Amino acid sequence: MAIDPRRAQQHATRAAFFIPGFVIATWAPLVPFAKLRTGLDEAGLGLVLLCLGLGSLLAMPLAGALAARQGCRRVMLGSTVLMLAALPLLALVPDAWLLGLVLLLFGAAVGAMDCTMNIQAVVVEREAARPMMSGFHAFYSVGSLAGALLATVVLGTGRGPLAATLAVAAIAALLCAASMRAWRRDRAPNDAPVFALPRGVVVAIGAVCFVSFLAEGAMLDWSAVFLHEVRGIAVAQAGWGFVAFNLTMTATRLVGDGVIARLGRAPTVLAGGAVGACGLALAVLAPGLGASLAGHALLGVGCANIVPVMFSLAGEQRRMPAHLAIPAVSTFGYAGVLAGPALIGFVAQGASLVFALLAVAATLAAAALLGARIGARHARM
């Protein structure tokens, strides 16, 4: 029985999203081992960790240019190979300089994959003529949960960081081998530009992604600190805030395409911003752990579909070609993850962490209004 090529591409795109989430999540439980092995203090580790984000930011525009000339398949395959080659080295390198260099390459591979898989997802969704982007992004989250779980289990058996990275790399390699034939090979015309500064509606879409990713970064870097230092929650329990956020975001993205198909893009983004902003306000203002966790969960529900909708709009707008717009939007979003937590820290230092997180909630609501307006305008085109 012949396999429908479009369905094969849809499954392969889900695998493409799963792989980087699965691989990069392995790094989180390896950080304490790397810190001990290299002898870094907290400040030095913070500087080295910046190499991961820097590599991603530098690679995203280049990945878009390469995808335009070589096709998504080659760039995604090359990115996966580099990612899997660098991963075991993160368990081996003995000094800070080498760790920084490997993290730079690892981050570049993840960033290139992130950018190119979204370019492919836009084309696959367009050909399917129905919302699919939220489901694709859900598989990144599923991959993150699976990768963190597998690495933690392997480390818990006492086999060490190298065994954990090799196990993850082997599974990711098998998944890549099974799906890469259905990754797209489309190329832009030879006379098409391969780089351009973002302009017009692409800047607005990027701004919405920046704020949504900023809220995600706030949960990753500040949730546990807030619950422990402001609400007095025990350190052992403070991580449950991010768990609640991540689980509801993943679950909401798994059903998000159906929601978008029924409600439309603009109402989905507007409702997401309202739910997310109220959820973050509840998480910050609620006095008890249970209510605060409910707020974290609502924030995950609210943020879940905003970014997928924005990527779909970036691929469909006519101000810039998709192979230029997607890297620009990806870079905006990743900048929110990197710069957002630092901005929150500066505001918290000058005012308070409560004020800083409430400001994020207000900004998220404003960004959702902008995103809904873009979605509504596109629907009328």
UniProtKB/TrEMBL annotation:
The chain crosses the membrane at residues 12-31, 43-68, 75-93, 99-124, 136-156, 162-183, 195-215, 235-256, 268-287, 293-313, 325-347, 353-372. Its main location: membrane. Pfam families: MFS_1. InterPro entries: MFS (IPR011701), MFS_trans_sf (IPR036259), MFS_Transporter (IPR051788). Keywords: Membrane, Transmembrane, Transmembrane helix. It is found in: Membrane. Signal peptide: none annotated. It is a multi-pass membrane protein. This is MFS transporter.
